[in-house]
Design goal:
heterodimer; A: four-stranded antiparallel beta sheet; four-stranded antiparallel beta sheet; globular; B: about 625 residues; alpha+beta; 4 domains; 11 strands; rod-shaped; nucleus (chain B)
């Protein structure tokens, strides 16, 4: 089993995880973190089959859980899922070019300002879907898109793909603003791993991306790499946290980097390699403020303190 | 009397007369004489009155006496009468009391109750009018009625006795007739034997078998009955027979009198033997062990014939002291089996291995009867597994076929053979045995071929694979359980409990160019319903296993998890070879779709020849391992 995606509920007490069999499991973080936690608290509250194919991406709005997998997006009500009612609220798929193979949706991004959802995946296109209806397309990548990141100050979205480029798009005009070909830069390119960009995170002026090329911190305005993080394994997920950068990928550890490029800590998890990280920063549940990591196994590691792995939730 | 008295008195008078005359004779002799005469007359008168008085007194006395005598007599008579009467009274009283105490026998007879009596007795006996008032009459009447009834019943009884005698006589006659029939019938049966053989209806044989079956111990008997029933009803290819020494079996159940005689004999013998040297302790223990593991002389043999004429011969034994059943198996095939020759090859058809784990976990090395452990401790046997080669395997399904059910927790005092348990297991077990035999035969053939590096794929399964496969199987060997555990990439399987010592382990080596793929295979004895599990290790540009390469993991799952498509035609014994073929295919795909490393000079080692829609997909960048037929391209699952 591989767990591809995670998402925290709006109340902060529950964690949803999606795996490669199309199932979504809801874990109760508050129960698992409480002092009377037993073995059953580490099992899912409810598990249901959401999609036919793997669930590659999960994102939460303030009432809904949106899941995306092989070509369609489904929405579920958080309130209902917690009570074990597993019926989808809606399910849509963006228009595709070819019908021979259904392209997967690798990344979902929520744009709260315009109440719209950005999708990107196997058909090499970015779609915007208004959370009521409607969608329009932003094109540009030559190979499929792995990841998306939202730049808050100017309404731009970044996308990184298999073709090795990071492209910036302007949401209002739908045009590509900038393209960064990461693999052409000597400092970070690692041709033996390929040129694909697996993960992106942005902090308005700065961007971290990794994957085939090494994990690098970029200055966006000048589009130059400033720091290269010395890690051989390709990274699949990266995020900014306070003044640290957390990354995870091949290899069982969650890596913590300082902005200068030094490795602050490497905390081992229980899966042989990790595919997603999730930080529970919901203000409604400060006691459930944890980092969860999941990847190539049926376990979701919970880190209460970034220094060590507290315990693991198990999918089955 | 008076004269006598006078005479008596006269002497007195004379005397007295004699005295006075001497003194005064002259005075007046005449006055004196007159006075004397007067006095004499007076004395005589006095004497006369005296006499009269005396006489009167006497008479009075006599009278008185007579009177009293009479009265006394009367009184005596009355007295006597009184005594008589009293005596009589007493006598009568005694009689009365005797009469009153007399318990007539009639009170001991239980008479019918009053109401019943009045109901049933005919009026001439009951005489209601008289008897109602008079209890004496009533009792008499009842007694009468009782007498009537008894007489009637006595008559009936006599009649019944007579008829019984008659019937007995009839029975005797008929018995004689029947016994005369017996020799005639057996002669007919003898004559009918050739007819039976001619018509293929071996009733006689079956009859003989049932005869011997009577001497079977209960579990074997249950097995025999159920197996023959099943064979007749559902499965024509199952034949049941009883083997062994019937005489010995009969000898086991000798009656006690014989054994008592034996005891006295053996006592005498024992005294003799103590004089001889005692056998050593080891020999004694050995004997005790042999005694404990003794088999019943009779055994049941089951022959299962399969479609291709291969047969599985099962012989079931019963260990009497341990109350368990064991089985020995043997395979015979119509054609010669080509066995693989490599070193370390485990013969899947050997008697030891063929029935291992027919049901999951039933490895037949431990005795299923918990009570046996205590028995073993007494004679120093550690486990039964040392003796299974000669005694046969005590599998759990064998016990169930014999109707012996052993609970798991505590030892039970008596375990008796139960028919219903055996019946429910018979069908499943027979089916399992057949599939097991077929699967093992198929596997042996496949192994023989695999040893030469050829993966035999039948024509029905060709469609599962593309036409051109470049990777080849180079080596196929059996490895031991310990070696499997040593391999670094098999740890997860061992931890998940999927690899035990009853399973079979193999190592396959597939090569293409410089790439070498090692596959460690766990084969469950329950192949092919339980699929083999593959673990891969690729040596090409470094060592890649599922722990460091997601695509290797995907390959493993493609082969081990998605096995249902690879079963092939029913009953699916080609699973292993199809899996190996698929492994070659996915290795091809892996090598060809590897993205080219632009930093290294030179062309790709493996040019892409497979048709793939997309080379990578998804956040984990999976390769397309799924083959689509008949379009012939590869896509992602």
């Amino acid at each position: 089993m591989t767990i591809f995606s995670q998402s925290v509920s709006p109340c902060g007490k529950f964690l949803a995880a999606g795996n490669n069999y199309g199932q979504i499991a809801i874990f109760s973080l508050s129960a698992a973190l409480s002092s009377e936690a037993k073995e059953e608290s580490k099992k899912p509250l409810v598990t249901f089959v959401a999609h036919d194919g793997p669930v590659y991406s999960l994102v939460s709005t303030d009432r809904h859980l949106l899941s995306a997998g092989d070509g369609e997006v489904k929405a579920w009500l958080w309130g209902e899922i917690i009570k074990k009612g597993c019926k989808e609220v809606w399910s849509r798929h963006p228009p595709y070019r070819s019908s021979l193979e259904v392209p997967e949706i690798n990344a979902l991004l929520l744009n709260p300002k315009e109440n719209s959802l950005l999708l990107a995946g196997g058909d090499c296109q970015l779609h915007t879907m208004d959370l009521e209806t409607g969608s329009f397309t932003l094109r540009g990548h030559t190979d499929y898109i792995h990841c998306l990141a939202l730049r808050e100050r100017s309404p731009e979205v970044l996308s990184g793909g298999e073709d090795g480029t990071v492209r910036l798009w302007d949401l209002r005009t739908g045009e590509e603003v900038q393209t960064i070909e990461v693999y052409r830069h000597e400092e970070c390119a690692r041709p033996q791993n390929g040129k694909w960009i697996g993960c992106l995170a942005t902090d308005s002026d700065w961007m971290v991306c990794g994957g085939g090329p090494a994990l690098t911190l970029w200055h966006l305005r000048s589009a130059t790499p400033t720091t290269v993080f010395p890690l051989r394994a390709p990274q699949k997920h990266v995020t900014f946290y306070q003044d640290l950068i957390l990354s995870a990928g091949q290899g069982p550890c969650v890596n913590q980097w300082q902005l200068s490029g030094e490795l602050k800590a490497q905390v081992p998890g229980s899966s042989p390699s990790l595919l997603s990280l999730s930080l529970n920063q919901q203000p409604a549940a400060p006691e459930c403020k944890v980092l969860t990591a999941a990847g190539n196994s049926c376990r979701v590691d919970v880190f209460t303190n970034l220094g060590y792995r507290a315990f693991s939730l198990s999918f089955s | 009397m008076s004269t006598e008295s006078n005479k008596k008195r006269k002497p007195k008078v004379i005397r007295s007369d004699g005295a006075p005359p001497e003194g005064k004779r002259n005075r007046s002799e005449i006055d004196l004489a007159s006075e004397i005469e007067e006095r004499r007359i007076q004395s005589c008168v006095h004497f006369m009155t005296l006499k009269k008085l005396n006489r009167l007194a006497h008479i009075r006395l006599k009278k008185g006496r007579d009177q009293t005598h009479e009265a006394k007599q009367k009184v005596d008579a009355y007295h006597l009468q009184l005594q008589n009467l009293l005596y009589e009274v007493m006598h009568l009283q005694k009689e009365i009391t005797k009469c009153l105490e007399f318990k007539s026998k009639h009170e001991e007879i239980e008479l019918v109750s009053m109401e019943e009596f009045y109901r049933e007795a005919p009026p001439e006996i009951s005489k209601c009018e008289i008897t109602m008032g008079d209890p004496h009459q009533q009792t008499l009447a009842r007694l009468d009625w009782e007498l009537e009834q008894r007489k009637r019943l006595a008559e009936k009884y006599k009649e019944c006795l007579a008829s019984k005698e008659k019937i007995l006589k009839e029975i005797e006659v008929k018995k004689e007739y029947l016994s005369s029939l017996q020799p005639r019938l057996s002669s007919i049966m003898q004559a009918s034997l050739p007819v039976q053989e001619y018509l293929f209806m071996p009733f006689d044989q079956a009859h003989k078998q049932y005869e011997t079956a009577r001497h079977l111990p209960p579990p074997l008997y249950v097995l025999f009955v159920q197996a023959s029933a099943y064979g007749q009803a559902c499965d024509k290819k199952l034949s049941v027979a009883i083997e062994g020494n019937v005489e010995e079996a009969k000898a086991l159940y000798k009656p006690p009198e014989d054994s008592q005689d034996d005891e006295s004999d053996s006592d005498a013998e024992e005294e003799q033997t103590t004089k001889r040297r005692r056998p050593t302790l080891g020999v004694q223990l050995d004997d005790k062990r042999k005694e404990m593991l003794k088999r019943h002389p009779l055994s049941v043999m089951l022959d299962l014939r399969c479609k291709d004429d291969s047969m599985l011969h099962l012989t079931f034994y019963y260990l009497m002291n341990l109350n368990i059943m064991t089985v020995k198996a043997r395979v015979s095939t119509a054609t010669e089996i080509v066995t693989p020759v490599s070193a370390g090859y485990v013969d899947l058809l050997s008697p030891d291995m063929i029935l291992s784990c027919l049901y999951p976990g039933d490895h037949g090395k431990k005795t299923p009867n918990p009570a046996n452990q205590y028995q073993f401790d007494k004679v120093g046997i550690l486990t039964l597994s040392d003796y299974v080669l000669e005694l046969g395997h005590p599998y759990l399904w064998v016990q169930k076929l014999g109707g012996l059910h052993f609970p798991k927790e505590q030892p039970q005092h008596t375990v008796t053979a139960d028919n219903s348990l055996s019946a429910s297991h018979m069908e499943t077990t027979m089916k399992l045995l057949r599939t097991r035999l077929q699967a093992r035969l198929a596997l042996t053939k496949q192994f023989a071929s695999l040893e030469h590096g050829i993966v035999p794929v039948s024509s029905e399964c060709q469609r599962l694979f593309p036409a051109k496969i470049v990777s080849r199987l180079v080596k196929w060997v059996a490895i031991a359980y310990e070696d499997y555990m040593e391999l670094p990439y098999t740890r997860d399987i061992v931890e998940a409990g999927l690899a035990e010592d009853t399973h079979l382990y193999y190592l396959a080596l597939i090569e293409r160019g410089t790439a070498k793929l090692q596959a460690a295979v766990v084969l469950n004895p329950g192949y092919s319903s339980i699929p083999p599990i593959f673990r891969l290790c690729l040596n090409w540009k470094g060592e890649k296993t599922s722990s460091n390469d997601d695509n290797i993991r995907a390959m493993e799952s493609e082969v081990s998890v998605c096995y249902r498509e690879l079963y092939g035609p029913r009953p699916g014994y080609q699973l292993l070879t199809n899996q190996l073929q698929r492994l070659c295919v996915v290795l091809d795909v892996y090598l060809e779709t590897e993205s080219h490393d632009t930093s290294v000079e030179g062309p790709k080692e493996f040019p892409q020849e497979k048709m793939c829609l997309r080379l990578v997909r998804g956040p984990s960048r999976m390769k397309p391992f799924k083959y689509n037929h008949p379009q012939g391209f590869f896509s992602h699952r």
